[in-house]
């Protein structure tokens, strides 16, 4: 049975070179998100918050696994969307890849946001995992058993295929793996990140379709190979 049925949340983040005028135009960007005919977020967001750092966050009434609402965040160097899949991973992922990324590209072009550093996609699962806590038993030589809480994070850097073919390019992928136990349920997450080195000025040149495809393939072919033996 596909582990994709356990994907509860998806997060898409785009990191760009710090742009200090973002707080001054954030109101216009928010208006576009809420009211533009191009926006894929019709009636989705219900609340707007602003931090002391002039970071703006649009919120919905739906709660993520951490108990906090779905959100769309905008600050001087990031735009991040985190949403509930509502049990419809493939259609939600296609929506992120198509409608959402296209709309973000529209915003970047309209407001002259340039120099993309990274595109990241996080797949968050809620599932029962067996024996993963054994790592603590091994580490402590069986002195600590039957643990109640566990959080493990590790990462791995991979060469990006594009960097093998394009001159003077040092692009790379970074995968962050996270496992957090909450009673009998684990939140297992894969954060697939693509770094542009050097940065890409125009978001239209970021080959986003390829990145979304690679992220999905990495999830299926690598991450799930490890998780399946515990699920």
What's the arrangement of secondary structure elements?
Elements: E1 7-16, H1 22-35, E2 47-50, E3 56-63, E4 69-74, E5 78-84, H2 89-110, E6 116-127, H3 134-139, E7 149-159, H4 161-165, E8 172-182, E9 185-200, H5 208-227
Antiparallel strand pairs: 1-5, 1-6, 2-3, 3-4, 4-5, 6-9, 7-8, 8-9
Q: Keyphrases for this structure?
A:
9-stranded antiparallel β-sheet, 5 helices, 231 residues, globular, alpha+beta
Strand order of the largest sheet: 2-3-4-5-1-6-9-8-7
Counting structural domains, the number is 1
Find the structural class using helix and strand composition: alpha+beta
* Radius of gyration based on Cα positions: 19 Å
The total count of strands amounts to 9
Instruction: Profile the largest sheet.
Output: 9 strands, antiparallel
Please give the count of helices. Answer: 5
Question: Termini distance?
Answer: 10 Å
Shape: globular
Beta content? 35-45%
Fraction of helical residues:
25-40%
Low-confidence stretches: none
What is the overall pLDDT average? 91
What is the H/E string?
Answer: EHEEEEHEHEHEEH
What report would you give on this structure?
The protein has 231 residues and is an alpha+beta fold. It has one domain. Helix content is 29%, strand content 37%. The chain contains 5 helices and 9 strands; from the N terminus they run E-H-E-E-E-E-H-E-H-E-H-E-E-H. It has a 9-stranded antiparallel beta sheet. A hairpin with a 2-residue loop joins strand 8 (172-182) and strand 9 (185-200). The model has no long low-confidence stretch (mean pLDDT 91).
